Amino acid sequence: MKIAIFSPYATVAPHFETELEIAQSHLEQGHTVEFASCYGKLANCDFNLEKSPSRCEDCIGRRKAGFSLLQPGIREIELAQTIPDLDLPRFNDLTELKTYYVDNFDVGYAVLSSLVSVCRDPQPDLEHWQPLLGRLMQSALATYQSTIDYLQSSRPDRVYLFNGRFAAMRAVLRACQSRQVDCFIHERGCDNQHYDLFPNHLPHDIQVIQETMLEHWHRGNPDREDIGAQWFEDRKNRVERNWHSFTKLQEIGRLPDQWENECKNISIFCSSEDEFVAIGDHWQNTIYPNQVRGIEKIASDLLSVSPDTRIYLRIHPNLKDVDNQSKREMLAIRSPNLTIIPPDAVIDTYEIMRRSDTVVTFGSSVGIESVYWGTPSVLLGPSFYGGMGGVHVPPDHSTAMELLSQELEPMDRTAALIYGYWQQTHGIPYQYFTSTGLFEGKFKGHVIYNGMKPRKPRFFQRAFQMLSNKETSA
After folding, report:
1. Which of the two residues, 132 and 272, has the higher pLDDT score?
2. Which domains are present in the chain?
């Protein structure tokens, strides 16, 4: 069996170590392994946008150090691109960009995914970002064509790559799909000691992930309910398993000063829209154009039909250091029935959840966590748990208002346990890599830094929030 691993990002731990893990596993089965690596000639690097020579040297050095630990050895080929001489279109708006395809490659979405991860803005100004947009577009198309050329000449049986969302890596996935070559995307697993593989689809595919969660549940672990429940307990207790806890700095039991127990209290937990805006059409909200417009309309209409209802908007903590139009507009919403909780407030997410009559989300994991903790939950956007039960999923704003005007009862929490069980257990245990933190660890007992200091790439931390199939709590 011939294996190809597309690995341009050796700076990123633990994902490079995961690729070494995958390579070693195949080598021990007697398979041939090729690494498609970058030596600074890619048209664009998502993790080195400035094309810093020292960053390239670090990446190349870390790659060589990692390859030296593989037994037997691997073959390495260089990812070199000839930039296509294309008259790239200028896009007037995001809709035009999102619908731009080349063959089966959703290059518009792929480029937008990288762009929003740079600027952390779900509605980026395309004119302002035109130079970067052009480089991303050229790089994505060059990667797509060079991958097709490689697949035709080298004929691997299987390809591996990281994440698949960004411009160049999605190009590899689409090239493999166009040539019917199995493409396995790797990402973090349930904790730092596991990784996971997603065959021939993005880790963000809602339908496939829901089917996977249900299959995982029905495989029959007798302790699955207790294991699933533990995920929710750990979240509440600020346990960090495979990503940061965004609630660990919150003051346990703290409510907003404006909280009124005698009123009906509805809490809205927003998501980071830039995390999901560029995945694909199935992640587009069909009720509201964006969260800001949705929150404004909910607050206004509830004030008319239920003036005694109080709304508390929790802006996601991971937006604390972000400055974009969406966040500014959200902070500027004004209504006498609305209290806004800024992202850096120490107000306790779980106390708000517990004390609310209804929780509203646009996709945040708080929506399914509320189901577990017995608070009625209304979901107003796409989510991995949206089609599994437990939450109210209105088809339009009118139905949403009907639900929010009622005294809802908690729903069965089986869907929550299914979701929690998958989050607590999915993935493949590492055999050769031992994690010592979110971005650190040892492969075969060695820290692979090639003499450089461990890095937590800024772009990577910004972009990773939506990866690994996780919806972060607020």
Report:
1. 132
2. 2-189+428-466 (3.40.50), 224-421 (3.40.50.2000)
The 309-314 sheet, strands edge to edge:
338-341, 309-314, 264-269, 358-361, 377-379
For residue range 123-151, what is the model confidence (pLDDT) as tens digits? 999 999 998 998 899 889 989 999 999 99
Q: Is the pLDDT of residue 361 over 50?
A: yes
> At 249, is the pLDDT very low, low, confident or very high (cuts 50, 70, 90)?
confident
Other C-beta atoms closer than 10 Å to the C-beta of 258 total 10
In terms of DSSP bridges, do strands 182-188 and 194-199 run parallel, antiparallel, or are they unpaired? Answer: antiparallel
- Whole-prediction pTM: 0.92
Q: How many CB atoms neighbour CB 79 within 10 A?
A: 21
What's the Cα-to-Cα distance from 350 to each of 250, 254, 300, 414, rounded to whole Å? Answer: 10, 9, 26, 20
For 411, how many CA atoms within 13 A lie in the half-sphere containing its CB?
A: 21
Contact 123, 115 (CB under 8 A): no
Cβ atoms of 335 and 298 within 8 Å: the answer is no
User: Crossing angle of helices 107-119/130-154, nearest 10°?
Assistant: 130
Helix axes 414-425 and 206-218, enclosed angle (nearest 10): 90
Q: Are strands 264-269 and 309-314 parallel, antiparallel or unpaired?
A: parallel
Q: How far is CA 375 from the centre of its chain?
A: 26
Token readout for 199 is 């065959």
